Amino acid sequence: MLTAYTSDEIRAAEQVLMARLPGGTLMRRAATGLAVACVKALPRVYGSRVVLLIGSGDNGGDALYAGAALARRGARVHAILAGARTHEGGLAELRRVGGRTYDLRGISDPARTEGAKAGTSASGPAKALETDPMLVNLIGGADVIVDGLVGIGGTGALREPYATLARMSAGSPGIVVAVDVPSGVDASTGEVEGEAVRAHLTVTFGAVKAGLLIDPGASHAGTLRQVDIGLGPFLPAPGVVTLTGPDVAERMPRAEPESNKYRRGVVGVVAGSDRFTGAAVLAVGGAVRAGAGLVRFASAAEAVQQVRAKWPEAVTKIITPEEGVREVGRVQAWVLGPGMGTDDDAHALARSVLDSDVPVLVDADGLTLATRDRSLLRRSAPTLITPHAGELGRLLGVPVEEIEERRLHHARLAAAELGVTVLLKGSTTLVAEEGRPVRVNLTGTPWLATGGTGDVLAGIAGAFLAGGLSCYEAASCAAFVHGLAARMAAGGPEGGQAPIAALDVALELPSAIRTLTASR
Ligand SMILES: NC(=O)C1=CN([C@@H]2O[C@H](COP(=O)(O)OP(=O)(O)OC[C@H]3O[C@@H](n4cnc5c(N)ncnc54)[C@H](O)[C@@H]3O)[C@@H](O)[C@H]2O)[C@@H](O)CC1
Ligand SMILES: Nc1ncnc2c1ncn2[C@@H]1O[C@H](COP(=O)(O)OP(=O)(O)O)[C@@H](O)[C@H]1O
Ligand SMILES: [K+]
């Protein structure tokens, strides 16, 4: 299991460790790791052009010491001093080994005070910076740009001149290496307010910061490299974690010698309608291919006909809203919602499923119904909801953009407010449940952003619920294998990249699961 922390947690651990070591030890460890990462990123160090963006804190100190190490190996290092102060030891070291500096005070005095307003528009002093020939040449001509503007001490939107430097570095052909965290990204949450550095590589110290795993922060961080500075024993229990392949293999339901289809788990799927049948086919497909012992599918005649045609493995039943799922037979978990519609009949059907005493996964139209009638989610058995940002926004009465900007906050909020387990889908998938660390799934691919893949995910999680996993475990394992199957379907044996359809994801599931279980 990979663990991730907030800035405060990291800082507290650093204080304890620092008190036991000679002054400057941690920064030296950090800077050495950073320099090594830069060396690896460069085709050749000798003669390469390295530009350091230096802020006023210790983050700038790390960059200066690392820059000095690179200068010692023959790199041409230029530090752009952007803060009101500069780390003295780091600056002296860089100068000692022939590193050069460019002090921005000379060209944009008014913008340089620490209290200057956050700005994203290139006007006034920012414009002066953006057209300054020296700066343009340095940043435009760099082989590597090291972002040492702010680290875990950053708060709020990047102020000037940092914001302009972040923007300029994005336009450079050089490799951008972020020190600890891309400046402008909230290290604890991944939130980005205004401008932020877009790094190819982030070299982070001591432990992974949660904001490096969660979008929009995650997509600003690029590849992550962690440098050990000895923080491990001093870290608290993490608030954010990520499952690895072996973690998932260990948790997933297994087929035991004594298994039969009922013991392996019967999942009921209520999805589709006379008008919409595709979602039902995909949700059943996810459940069948993820290893449910048996899938019982109950819906309107048209959806039943389509599911029977595609998945002969499923046991199907045509039901009416009045009778609900009473006669469908015993299941260990339900999947409710994809394509079922949102009218009064659908509401009656949802009520009959949610009245049951087994875990229910609510997705898609089921979530729309729950938005209109929150009482649907008040139940004694466990409930897992699987919204995308739009659906969660409607459930919480928050604009979709706000959900996307503050994913961690809203996933936790929904779990607490609704008393359910939340799987928030999107470019970063999060699983939140009260009292548990938020699980971040890292296996997805942007190729998943295509119609119907969410229905497949609902089927997978339903199969895992029926197999006996809790909502929290079923959701996180399902997100993992869903992302992995998509990656494999999009990548193929040659490792290229190609579009995928939702059904491809379902079909790839056994192969994806095989790669996990092979190692257990
Ligand atoms: N504390 C430790 O033990 C270690 C810290 N290290 C480094 O130290 C960093 C933290 O250093 P600091 O605590 O000095 O903090 P930072 O260097 O991250 O930032 C603090 C400075 O940035 C300014 N600032 C904050 N938000 C800003 C914004 N939005 N726009 C413009 N300026 C902003 C502050 O006014 C302050 O001057 C870590 O990220 C890491 O790089 C490493 O050397 C490893 C050891
Ligand atoms: N940019 C992205 N990167 C990775 N995964 C994504 C991205 N966009 C969407 N996804 C994933 O694709 C799936 C889409 O599900 P959903 O929004 O419910 O679509 P649908 O309703 O069409 O099935 C989810 O698993 C989601 O996490
Ligand atoms: K940084």
TrEMBL record:
It holds the Pfam family YjeF_N. Binds 1 potassium ion per subunit. Gene3D superfamilies: 3.40.1190.20, YjeF N-terminal domain. In the C-terminal section; belongs to the NnrD/CARKD family. Belongs to the NnrD/CARKD family. K(+) binds at N59, D147, S183. InterPro entries: CARKD, Nnr, Ribokinase-like, YjeF_N_dom, YjeF_N_dom_sf. This is Bifunctional NAD(P)H-hydrate repair enzyme. Residues 244-516 form the YjeF C-terminal domain. It catalyses: (6S)-NADHX + ADP = AMP + phosphate + NADH + H(+); (6R)-NADPHX = (6S)-NADPHX; (6S)-NADPHX + ADP = AMP + phosphate + NADPH + H(+); (6R)-NADHX = (6S)-NADHX. (6S)-NADPHX binds at residues 58-62, 151-157, 162, 180, 279, 339, 388, 455. Residues 10-237 form the YjeF N-terminal domain. NCBIfam families: yjeF_cterm, yjeF_nterm. Catalyzes the dehydration of the S-form of NAD(P)HX at the expense of ADP, which is converted to AMP. Together with NAD(P)HX epimerase, which catalyzes the epimerization of the S- and R-forms, the enzyme allows the repair of both epimers of NAD(P)HX, a damaged form of NAD(P)H that is a result of enzymatic or heat-dependent hydration. HAMAP family: NADHX_dehydratase, NADHX_epimerase. AMP binds at K425, G426, S427, T428, T429, G454. Its EC number is 4.2.1.136, 5.1.99.6. SUPFAM superfamilies: Ribokinase-like, YjeF N-terminal domain-like. Its cofactor is Mg(2+); K(+).
